[in-house]
Write a structure and sequence with these properties.
Oligomer: heterodimer
Largest sheet of chain A: none
Number of strands of chain A: 0
Number of helices of chain A: 4
Order of helices and strands of chain B: HH
Distance between the termini of chain A: 50 Å
Strand content of chain B: under 5%
Strand content of chain A: under 5%
Order of helices and strands of chain A: HHHH
Radius of gyration of chain B: 22 Å
Shape of chain B: elongated
């Protein structure tokens, strides 16, 4: 089975479990506070995943290692290559 | 080392998402188990908003992404050549 198939299968399982507990026949047997937590659970998981993604992006942005000398060296190479190509007749 | 701006923005994002996560978790998961006469409930909107606000924000996000894609595609049209 492909990865997509696995993900969809897992989502379908969890989704049907949630639907059975929250919307389906077992509804009234769940104690009221648990019911109140259960109903918004998909939205909660989505928001939690969004927060995790945002935090990961922010953290990797903050801890990224710039290489100043490599950047300067690359700019130099680019300038030299441009001058060389311009000399050989290529118009930018 | 990332530049100072990058670090500020990055850690700011981390702090913001942490605050958001904690607030939302308390709202959805913890509050139903606290008696309704406790003072903490005054800091949280009624429960319907806990679903309406993220759904509305998600739809807005999709709208902006769609508008962005439309603008980029519009700008990258090639002019149609007329052949006489």
């Amino acid at each position: 089975m492909t990865k997509l198939g696995q993900w969809l299968w897992g989502l379908a399982l969890l989704g049907s479990a949630w639907a059975a507990l929250a919307l389906g026949p077992l509804g009234p047997r769940v104690p009221p506070p648990c019911r109140q937590v259960l109903l918004p659970l998909p939205v909660y998981l989505l928001v939690a995943f969004g927060c995790y993604s945002l935090a990961t992006v922010g953290y990797r942005l903050a801890t990224f290692n710039d290489c100043e000398e490599a950047a300067a060296e690359l700019r130099e190479h680019i300038g030299a290559a441009r001058a060389d190509l311009r000399r050989r007749g290529l118009r930018f | 080392m990332a530049t100072a701006t990058d670090q500020v923005v990055g850690f700011g994002l981390v702090a913001f998402s942490l605050v958001l996560f904690v607030y939302y978790t308390i709202w959805i998961i913890i509050l139903p188990f606290i008696d309704s006469d406790h003072g903490i409930h005054q800091y949280f909107l009624p429960r319907e908003y806990a679903v309406i606000i993220p759904v509305a924000a998600g739809l807005l996000l999709l709208l902006f992404i769609g508008i962005f894609i439309a603008i980029v595609m519009w700008k990258s049209r090639k002019p149609v050549k007329k052949s006489d």
